[in-house]
Amino acid sequence: MTDADGAAGGAANTADAAEDREYRDPDALLRRAGVRGNPDRDQHFLVDDRVLDRIPTYLPDETDTSHLLEIGPGTGALTDRLLAVADRVTAIERDPDLADFLREEFADEIESGRLTVIAGDALDVELPDFTACVSNLPYGVSSPITFRLLPEGKPTVLMFQKEFAERMAASVGDDDYGRLSVSAGHYADVEVVEPVPKGAFAPPPDVESAVVRTTPRDPDYTVDDEQFFLDFVKALFTQRRKNVRNAIRNTAHISGLAEPEAVVEALPEETLRKRPGKLAPSAFAEIAGIAAEHGGPTDG
Ligand SMILES: C[S@@+](CC[C@H](N)C(=O)[O-])C[C@H]1O[C@@H](n2cnc3c(N)ncnc32)[C@H](O)[C@@H]1O
């Protein structure tokens, strides 16, 4: 059991902290909550103890675990593991019945101030001042939640659909490389740390899953206007089979460029001939800088 009064924990301590601790059985939690999981509400509960045990251990070394955030705690199987390695946990659950169940099930932890349960939509509620986030995410809103979390600059360990995870972690030139890879990589190093089969969940989802670790860092390039950079990346990848010249011309309505033709004229021919999937994030940053200087963006 972690020392609730101690200094900020670290991921290096997560294995020690959790050692010999008896966790709540995920199947028993489902029974006590009286739920089966409703896929229409993004409810697929993790019931494989080994996967549950490993998830907190993927936090980067030296992570400050003093205040962990969990999105979509469900019946609390992962919450229980997080309480073993954190000083405090805040859990945001959209389903009000599950939030009520958690308040009963974890009454002692709530009473002692170690757990806060917020009933609400993780896309809307104000996020607490967390030090790291560990979650088995609702897949229907993975992307908006992830891009709410990443700009906070905190380590995360998150479960995604496998295909989404691979796109997030892809490098330039990979088949999966795209908008998601560049946008996530703008904020953090992204690694797929464990594939998770459908059978680890109840009810099993239609797709395979994977756990992803993100370790925040500054990018190896600079951008003056982050929103324009992200919009520009999004715009070019809507035309991934076109070369950069045509992609810029065809997507001014998405990137917000006022004068796409002026941007094309300002860029070297070698760049214009490439496809977006062959541009490293630093190349996108350079092109976005030239684009902002020569052709926009428009004001709104
Ligand atoms: C994939 S389940 C994970 C449950 C639990 N963490 C586990 O591993 O067993 C996703 C959970 O997120 C909740 N959820 C769905 N959409 C949400 C949202 N927008 N904000 C917060 N929670 C949400 C669901 O009710 C469900 O409990």
TrEMBL record:
It is an enzyme of class 2 (transferase). It comes from Salinirubrum litoreum. SMART domains: rADc. One of its GO terms (molecular function) is RNA binding. Residues 1-25 are annotated as: Disordered. GO terms for cellular component: cytoplasm. Keywords: Cytoplasm, Methyltransferase, RNA-binding, rRNA processing, S-adenosyl-L-methionine, Transferase. Residues 51-218 form the Ribosomal RNA adenine methylase transferase N-terminal domain. The gene is rsmA. This is Probable ribosomal RNA small subunit methyltransferase A. The keyword S-adenosyl-L-methionine applies. Residues 1-16 have a biased composition (Low complexity). Belongs to the class I-like SAM-binding methyltransferase superfamily. rRNA adenine N(6)-methyltransferase family. RsmA subfamily. The keyword Phosphoprotein does not apply. S-adenosyl-L-methionine binds at H44, L46, G72, E93, D121, N136. PROSITE patterns: RRNA_A_DIMETH, SAM_RNA_A_N6_MT. Specifically dimethylates two adjacent adenosines in the loop of a conserved hairpin near the 3'-end of 16S rRNA in the 30S particle. May play a critical role in biogenesis of 30S subunits. It comes from the Archaea. It is found in: Cytoplasm. Its EC number is 2.1.1.-.
